[in-house]
Each structure stands twice: as structure tokens, then as C-alpha cells.
Amino acid sequence: MMNKTICVVGLGYIGLPTASILGTKGYRVVGVDASPDVVETINRGEIHFFEPDLDILVRSAVHSGNLVAVSKPQTADIFIIAVPTPLDDSDKTPDISYVEAATRSIAPYVKTGDLVLIESTIPVGTTTGAVLPILQRDGANQADGVRLAHCPERVLPGRILVELIDNDRIVGGIDDESAEAAAAFYETFVRGQVYRTDAATAEMAKLAENTFRDVNIALANELSVVCDPHGIDPWEMIKLANRHPRVNILQPGPGVGGHCIAVDPWFIAAGEPNARLIRTAREVNDAKPDWVIGKVREAAAEISSPVIGCLGLAFKADVDDLRGSPAEIIARRLMDEGIGELLVCEPNISDHAAFTLSTLDDVLARADVVVLLVDHKEFRSLRPEDLGDKIVIDTRGVIR
Ligand code: SAJ
User: Fold this and answer.
1) 332-342 burial, b for 16+ CB within 10 Å, e for fewer?
2) pLDDT classification of 102: cutoffs 50, 70, 90
3) How far is the centre of ligand 1, averaged over its atoms, from the C-alpha of 341 (Å)?
4) One of 72, 151, 227, 260 is an active-site residue; which one?
5) Which single residue of 120, 149, 228, 337 could bond 173 by disulfide (Cβ 3.0 to 4.6 Å)?
6) Spatial distance between the Cα atoms of 312 and 347, rounded to a whole number of angstroms
7) Is the confidence at residue 139, as pLDDT, over 80?
8) Residue nearest ligand 1's atom 35 by CA
9) Residue 326 CA, closest ligand 1 atom number
């Protein structure tokens, strides 16, 4: 198994960590990315986004000669597709065009006995309904004898390298032989259990995992809103409620961001009238930024020429990823509405197209209203006394 060549298509948040781990486990890995910048960066042994320890791993995989980045796929024994599946913003339907394009790009190189693994999150039915027909049409042997499985990634940004090895995996084959081949491959580097199933069950299980989290965060967010008129601290209340042996409420925040939890539930809910709870949870979480902005408006109304300081832009703590971030949405809307002078501090990035970034000290020195949007480590040590008589809107419940 170990002398096999693996072609990983898509060198982003999932593809690059996976390719570099496989490169350090003795596989020969060819990583494919459409962006020439990404290809060049990786071939220098460098990385194009931050993830703890990824720089060390990529450097070692590239320098050993086991990981090479290229712009076009080539012959391999195992193909892994890890490209994005964004949402069409107008009607919230999933856009599988990158998965289809990636499949078309590998198809001419896929021969009998090869293994094709789809790690991208995809709507139910995509593996057999969209990927397989492309391989059958364009594959080297019309994909006769190809083994194909959906093997959804489950890693948490910030802990990707640990979770790639430690998490249990689900592999959903188009047939038993595909599931078995996929499982045997993951078992060469995954320490967690690898569970075999069919492709549709694996597709739905991945969507259900992120939907579970979205629905539970929606409950926390809704509770925080209904606590507010009663003057109840929702974090304190949730901590107490969670002392019940069968209750585990998640944490309220300014909304839900990132490229997974706020997106994947729509893969189930779009065009499915029976997905009522899932759709409502999305709406509850998407409405939270507006509620926070309302709070800032109220606070600013009490001050003449208010200075508003936003702490954090990332979608969650201790990452530099701004995709779908409610913090960034809130800061942009505050700027567009012109609610006072705006200061924005995001310690994990060095510049931003729309904002001139301020330091935490600037914000603490100048702001009348401080809006804590992300619980980055730099902000978690703030205490009420650090904020004096400023109005504090703490959307993460960390200043206490
Ligand atoms: N959030 C809250 N309250 C919470 C937990 C999270 O407001 O109690 C917010 C975060 O601030 C963030 C968003 O939710 O804006 C999502 O963050 P997250 O840490 O829950 O998840 P992601 O998007 O970083 O990663 C998720 C993970 N899925 C689950 O935990 C079920 C990860 O394991 C998946 O691999 C990943 O999605 C993915 O790629 O699908």
C-alpha cells in the first residue's frame, strides 16, 4: 500500500493537511490546485493559510520529495477530491460544480482498480448521481472496475492535524468493494475507527453532523435573546442548566460563521419542505448579527459622537479565517450604517480591504462602546475593570 501514488485535488483547508500527512506516511503524493500561487507556495515548502503545525508538516513532506504540487492531475492509484462546495446565495442550493470539474479533470487518469475518494461535503446522491456518471463517461476504462466512495472530512479548523488522525471516519462506498478499499486506505493512517456504509448514508451523516451543531447553536442563540429582557446572563444560565446530567446547551455568540456549519444544513433543507427545524435554525443563527447591531445602535444612541470598537473579525476564536464570519458582517454593517467612528481590532490578520486595523490598546484607549465579537485568546483575559465606564456588548460572554 505504502508505495502507492495519491493524487489530491484541491489543496485547501482539507486537501493540504491530508496531502502532507500522507506525504509523511510514505505515500507519494501529487497535490493539484488550480491556483498557480498555491502551487508555487507549497513547492517552496510554505503554506497559504494558517493552521497550527501545518507549516512544519508541509515543509517536511515537500523536502522529502513525497509531496509535489502541480496544476493538473496525473496517473495515480488513489484520487482524493477535496474541493469546496459553496452555496448559491440566491436560493441556498449547493453548487457542486467544483466537484464535477475535479472529477472531469481526474477521469482520463482513472483506470481499473483505482480508488476515487470524495472528501468534499456534497448533497445526498452526488456520489452515485453526479461523480460516478462522469467517471463512467470520461474514465480511462469508462471507470470499469473503479472503486468510488464518499469519505467526508470531519476535522475542526485549529485542530486539523490532530483530528485527521484521531477522529473516527465514515466511508460510504458505491458498493461493498469500494467501501472496503476506502476503509483499508484510511486505516493506514487514521487512529480512530473507520466505519463502512453506503455512499448516500455517508453523505447524509456528514450533513447531519453539522446540522446537529447548527440547530444546537440556534437554541443557545435564541435563549440568549429571550434572556436579555429579563436581565439574565445567558452564559451563567446555560452553565447552570448544563449541570443537569442530560443537558448540554452550546454557547451563544454573534451568529454562526465559517464554511461548514452555516452552509451544510442548506444541503438538506434547500428544496425540502419537510426540513422545517433545520431551516428555522439557519434563520435564527443568521438573524443574530442583526440583533447584535440593534444592541450597538441602542448603546451608541446614548453618546454624542460615539467611538465603537469591534474586537475580532474571524469566524471563531484563534483562527485567521474570515469566511462567512458574523463578526465581519457586523463590523461591515456598523460601518455602512455610520453608527459612530469605527475601530476594528483583529490580531490574527495584518490587513483588511475594508478596515484600517487598530490594536487592542487603541480600542481600549478610544472606544466608548466595545463590541466583543470573537473570543480570541488576546481578548479572553479582559476583565470588566479593563473597560472602565465603557459600554460593553460582549457577544461571547468572556468579559467577566
Ligand atoms: N459557535 C457558536 N457556539 C458554539 C460553537 C460554535 O456560536 O457553542 C460558532 C463559532 O463561533 C463559529 C461557528 O459556530 O462561528 C462554527 O464553528 P465550529 O467550531 O462549531 O465549527 P467549524 O465550522 O470550525 O467546523 C465544523 C465541525 N463540525 C462539527 O463540530 C459537527 C468540524 O468537525 C467539521 O469538519 C467542519 O465543520 C466541516 O468542515 O464540516
Assistant:
1) bebbeeebbeb
2) very high
3) 32
4) 260
5) 149
6) 7
7) no
8) 154
9) 15
Is there an atom of ligand 1 within 6 Å of 157 CB?
A: yes
Ligand 1 atom nearest residue 121's Cα: 40
User: If you average pLDDT over every residue of the chain, what do you get?
Assistant: 96
Task: Report pLDDT for 30.
Answer: 98
Task: Tell me what pLDDT residue 184 has.
Answer: 98
| Residue 314 alpha carbon to ligand 1 centre in Å | 13
How many residues does the structure list for the chain? 400
The alpha carbon of 286 and the centre of ligand 1 are apart by a number of angstroms equal to 14
Q: What's the order of all strands across the beta sheet hosting 28-32?
A: 67-70, 28-32, 5-9, 78-81, 115-118, 147-150, 169-173, 194-198
Q: Does residue 206 carry a catalytic annotation?
A: yes
Enclosing H/E stretch for 135? helix 132-138
**Domain segments of the chain: what residues?**
5-192, 208-394
CATH superfamily to which 5-192 belongs: NAD(P)-binding Rossmann-like Domain (3.40.50.720)
Fold that domain 208-394 belongs to in CATH: Rossmann fold (3.40.50)
Across the chain, how many H-helices and E-strands are there? Answer: 15, 14
Q: Separation of 156 CA from ligand 1 center, angstroms?
A: 7
Is residue 2 over pLDDT 60? no
Given CA atoms 365, 366, 367, 368 in this order, what sign does their dihedral have? Answer: positive
Of 350, 358, 258, 256, give the one whose Cα is nearest residue 311. 358
The span from the CA of 79 to the CA of 148, in Å, is 9
The span from the CA of 50 to the CA of 20, in Å, is 14
Residue 101's Cβ-count burial label (10 Å; 0-12, 13-18, 19+) is middle
* Beta-sheet pairing, 391-394 with 93-94: unpaired
pTM here is: 0.95
Domains 5-192 and 208-394 share a fold: yes
pLDDT higher than 60, residue 357: yes
Q: Give CA torsion, residues 321, 156, 260, 176, to 10 deg.
A: 140
* Separation between Cα atoms, residue 260 and residue 277, nearest integer Å: 18
Query: How confident is the model over 153-171, as pLDDT tens digits?
Result: 999 998 999 999 999 999 9
